[in-house]
Give the backbone structure.
Amino acid sequence: MTLPVWPWRLLLPASQKTRLVNQAISGGISIAGMTQTIVSSGGGHWVSDLSGINLQTPDQIRCARAWSALLDAGATSLVLPFWDLAQAPRPTIGGVAVKPSLPAITASDYFNNPVGFTTALMSSTCIGAVALRATSMVINIATGSALCGGEYFSINHAGCGWRLYRIAQVTAVSGSQYTCTIRPPLREAIATGTALEFDVPRCTMKLVAGRSDSLDPDVGLGRFGKVDVAFEEAF
Amino acid sequence: MSTSFSSAAQTQLLGGTIRPAIFFRMALNDGSVIRLWGGVGDFSLPANAFDAAAQTYRGLGQINDIPVMQQLLGGAAERVSFTMSGVDATTAALADSEANLVRGAQIQVGLVLFDNGWQPLTITGSSIIRWCAEYEADSPGGAHDGTRWTISLSAASAFSGRRRSLISRYTPQDQRKRSATDAFCDKTPQISVGTSILFGP
């Protein structure tokens, strides 16, 4: 099933907080005052808050409403692109990061505008097959700059679709190959040479239950609105 | 079933942070098996005491109440209830329409411990899972509170069944435990409905 892709350039948030949520509970306090932490979520799932999406045109207000209707309070999943280019390992020329060229979009098309850049900035693949739930992999950066840790990338898995990963640590470097630890554990096994998306990472998400009406704008003066939306990883 | 933890598992259990995951396996009466685990995403569990080959456990992350389980000692009866909240209508419907598949189904609950890199530890022997408890399902149920579905499953350990057969009998072993030379019950294994037993020497 082809999932709708969030109109990342029509509904731009002022800020976006993306984090991996792990369920941690306390094992109680010992007589010495020490606590034991129990993390039972098996690696966690993504939650992303898009704050301060200003709706200043009729198209933007209609777009938010249309998406609210389409997502059915979280019943319908979507592909959410992440704008994190400043932190991505993009290539440099003369010490200056290469700027992307963006394809033209149509403001009145809320569902079919292109995602990504006209020409991909970065190109990378994994080296060797990586097993389901692995947290370590070798990444070959064919085009781009060095990985440091903290970067996002995503994989379009054959079974579970787009999934987001964050590089935790680079543990070894050999030329353009970086051995990295990643979180969360790999959602699906991948074959050697699988493409990794650093340009515009994406993840399959849905509206957070309990905030399912967050895309419905409170329209001021009949023309302006602002919404804050929260998404969580969908399975 | 081994009862000892590996040294790696013991080290984690004695430490400040534990990364456990609960695995749930239920073999339905039609031969199919429901496999779930408490984390997120799929988990491929290698062959173990109950699965002859590696099997995928679905990580719905929806088991929201695992009962306190007690090690069965001396045949003490135990009855527990599992609940899952936020399930979709299809899963909830299973609890009602497929109840006949669930009653009497064997349930196993297991424990897996993860290391700091979220890789499973060898928990006991050469296995990454330790099956901790085994139950027999008896009454599934579903509820909808207007916003979410909850399904529950009542289960019991082997000795707490509420069903009793109409006929019970002493076995020869029972009687000889009471009185070592008494042959009074030696022929009871031959008893079945419609047969006449000739008592006496």
